Each structure stands twice: as C-alpha cells, then as structure tokens.
Amino acid sequence: TAKDATPLDGAAIAEVNSMLARRLEAKFARDYESADAIKEAMRFKHGVTVDDGRKQWRADGASFAPVYDRIGDIASEAAARVDVAQVSSLTKERMAARKSQDYARADDILDELLDDYGVVLVDQDYTWRYVGRGHDGQYGEGGSYGRRADEAARAKPGAMGSHDYVREQPTGEVVQCDEETQARIDGLLAQRLALKKARKFTEADTLQFELFETYGVEVDDRARTWYLVA
After folding, report:
1. Are 42 and 76 within one domain?
2. Domain boundaries, position 49
3. Which of 11, 102, 148, 208 is 20 to 30 A from 5, alpha carbon to alpha carbon?
4. How much is the pTM?
5. Beta-strand relationship, 127-130 and 119-122
6. Residue 111: beta bridge partners?
7. What pLDDT digit, counting tens, does each position of 137-193 carry?
8. 3-state SS, residue 51
9. Of 167, 79, 163, 90, whose CA–CA distance to 129 is shortest?
10. What is the CA radius of gyration of the chain?
C-alpha cells in the first residue's frame, strides 16, 4: 500500500503496482537479483522506496525509519528543560547502532538517555518519556524500560517466551548469525507470536518491522519459517 500522498498520475501508479507484483513473484521464486533490480528501477523511474517489513511504498523522498514520539509529562519545570533535539539525535543513533548490530552502543545510549536526560524509551510503540534523572527504569505496572527490561526478562528462565519458527535460508545462501543476534531474533519472534495470539496485530506488526529493519529477518507465517536477507 502507498504510505504517502505523492501525486503520481494514474499511469505511474499502475506501473508501480505492476512492478511491485512482479517483484513479489521474484521474491517468492527466490530470485532476489531480479527483485532487487525491480526495486532499483522503481526508485530510479518513479522515486519509489519500498518497506518490505511494513508492506508499504512511498514516493515522497521521506524515510520509513520510525520516529519516537514524546508522551507523558511535558509541563513540569524539569520536563520542560529536556533537550528534545539531543534526545531525538540519540534515538536515531541508537536505531542505527541496532541496525548495524552494535548492541553494546545501543544499550549504552539507553543508559545515557536515562542517566543524563532522565528519559526512557518504549520500543514497542516508539515513544519516549521524561521520568527524571536517577530513575530506576521501573514503571508502575511492574515492568521495566530499555536495557533494564531486557535484563529482567533474561533473568527469568522462559520469561521471553518461545516460538515454533524455524530458520530456513534460501538454497545456496549463507548468512552468518552470531549467538547474541540469534537470541535477540528469537526473543522478538516469541514476543510477536504472543501478540498475534492475543490478537494485538498492530503491536505484532511493529515487531515484524523491527525484525526486518534491525536484523534483516523475513518471516513466513504460513510455513512457520524465517530467514536472513542476504
């Protein structure tokens, strides 16, 4: 589906839809070279970029990268002093670090946001809020934010849940995946499956987007398989 309202004429939209259909057929046939060529042709001819994780396309030149929205306290004197521009810069740096699998830096940014700015992130709905410096990272419902949430979950056997998806790379493709990356992917797959079972499809789609954007993971729900895009 189209993400923006860029005024492409009817003929251009029809051609884009046709190219998208041919690209999907190529992907189903594991012909990724042709799929990539079609994607590049759409970008060159119509300025179209495609987000496979969200199954959307756009032609306005904007990025699909999510933006963290501020929620919660914005009126108090302390909250009003938060350097919003710096928080935004750090969230973008963290997304880039996660995408490049520099998890240590991504986690350090979480601590920097909390310790230096009193800010916590909620990745599931792409929001951030001011909670104050010295906050322990806990919130009222008994959960945790950021790295502290990951550590709390990992501290309990089975707390991250499980899934029945099997990694099945396309024939002939070899894509390395270290143990830490595998563990993070398994955690997201388990969370996504739990959300789908709870019929929280919007939240599940958010995790599917994160799997693709951060780790290059494609999921086939019907076959119960996943693979890393080469």
Report:
1. no
2. 10-58
3. 208
4. 0.51
5. antiparallel
6. none
7. 555 444 445 544 445 444 443 344 578 888 888 766 777 888 888 888 888 898 888
8. strand
9. 79
10. 20
pLDDT at 141: 40
Are residues 76 and 142 located together in one domain of the fold?
A: yes
Question: Concatenated DSSP letters for 87-124?
Answer: HHHHHHHHHHHHHTT-HHHHHHHHHHHHHHH-EEEEGG
Q: Please, which residues bridge with residue 127 across strands?
A: 69, 122
CB 205 within 8 A of CB 54: yes
- Residue whose pair of structure tokens reads 């300025």 in the numeric block: 47
Q: Are 99 and 91 in contact (CB under 8 A)?
A: no
Least confident of 80-84, 112-116, 145-149, 205-209: 145-149
**Domain boundary, last residue among 92, 126, 154:** 154
Rounded CA-CA distance 228/159 in Å is 25
Q: Under a CB-based contact definition with an 8 Å cutoff, are residues 120 and 113 in contact?
A: yes
Confidence bin at 230 (pLDDT 50/70/90): low
Burial 8-25 (b: 16+ CB within 10 A, else e): beeebeebbeebbeebee
Of all residues in the chain, the percent with pLDDT exceeding 70 is 81
Same domain, 173 and 125: no
56-58/49-51 β-pairing: antiparallel
Domain count for the chain: 3
Domain boundary among 154, 186, 205: 154
